[in-house]
From TrEMBL:
Name of this protein: isochorismate synthase
EC number(s) from the headed UniProt entry: 5.4.4.2
This protein's record includes keyword Protein transport: no
InterPro entries given in the database record: ADC_synthase, Chorismate_C, IsoChor_synthase
Keywords: Isomerase
PANTHER family (alphabetical): ISOCHORISMATE SYNTHASE ENTC
Family that this chain belongs to: Belongs to the isochorismate synthase family.
Keyword Cell wall biogenesis/degradation: no
Gene3D superfamilies assigned: Anthranilate synthase
Domain Chorismate-utilising enzyme C-terminal: 168-416
Reactions listed under catalytic activity: chorismate = isochorismate
Amino acid sequence: MTRTAASAESAVQALTVETTPLDDVRQLIPFLDPRQPLLWLRRGEGIAGVGEAVRLEFTGPRRIADAADAWRELAAAATVTDPVRLPGTGLVAFGSFAFADESEQASVLIVPSLVIGRRGGRSWVTRISAGDAGGVERADAGAAAAPKPTPFGPEFRLTMAPGRLSAAGYGEAVAAAVDRIATGEVGKVVLARELRAHLPAEADVRRALVELALGYSECWTFAVDGFVGASPETLVRVIAGRVDAQVLAGTAARGADADADARAADTLRASRKDRAEHTFAVDSVLESLRGHTGALETSAPFTLKLPNLWHLATDVAGTLADGSSALDLVAALHPTAAVAGTPREAALALIRELEPFDRGRYAGPTGWIGADGSGEWAIALRSAQLAPDGDLTAYAGGGIVADSDPVLEVAETTMKFRPIVEAFG
Ligand SMILES: C=C(O[C@H]1C=CC=C(C(=O)O)[C@@H]1O)C(=O)O
């Protein structure tokens, strides 16, 4: 684990945090840094971060557990004034974790210096500084650091090209996975492919975030450390002692008209192949959450409509039983069978063998954590990582089971790339 920013010497920084109500702020994205946005947004509500008061980096198999421990220490040492008391007020960090234990991509928790938030029609600003911000600084803090939106940079359009696994190569990997499933080595494995582009230095990333947030308003639009996307899948939320998740696995194209669309949803609901793929994912979530929660309620699987496709979905909800933080639950859950497979270790080994690239933070947990352990985390799907040199890598994958068809699986990844391809294209 490395600590950068503010003070590298002190083991735990004593942060001073002050939340104040704001008049309703309807648009959060214009407040963000054009190249380093920090965002968590759904249905027009969420949090936007500016600057970095603290940045914590983690790698390796214990990256999420280490982050959960580091966060507890940081939160315990902070002095927080929060009269608003909503999820996302007070001390928060944005986080994004690499999918794989062996990933070269750093996992991060970033505490911004300024957070602007909106929830339930109420808005606020939180200022976070290292050390005691009392006296003179505190007296004029409101006037000195009033958050300001900035105009967007010019429009841009990128063309995305195949990455290290082409569409044809992906089809071959799917066929190889189906063969391996036939041997009984795994029941399900999730394979992905990449698309790549280069973002010019002057391009304003907020333009892509606006597209994602408007086009996929029911999804979690996120931006953390250059990693952006609009994910439909809630890995876990912990709010006021309640735990919930929405498991997604099983996908179908939208129909061309209303009748065809309804038929597509019916076919997905009835599909044995998709039900099998879905059950693996639900079981993995229930198994990981049990032990941390009271009895878990699950909905029957239902079809979830997104602009680009249908998913099979199951809602899971319960009450937190052991005082775990949202990050503790993320550590217990990741990677679910929606993004790895079943059995988990064998599926991860097969992913390492068949995918010729590091997934980075794709399919990893991304979200935010609060001082009291509350938080909202998505599985980072429909996403792309922007490197400091402007290279952009987008990812999409799908669950492979015994009767998966390589041609259909390639088409499914094309549908899943749409949010990112259209936001940057
Ligand atoms: C792995 C992805 O989606 C997962 C989530 C929902 C449906 C999925 C599927 O039907 O294969 C995948 O499990 C992705 O979007 O890259």
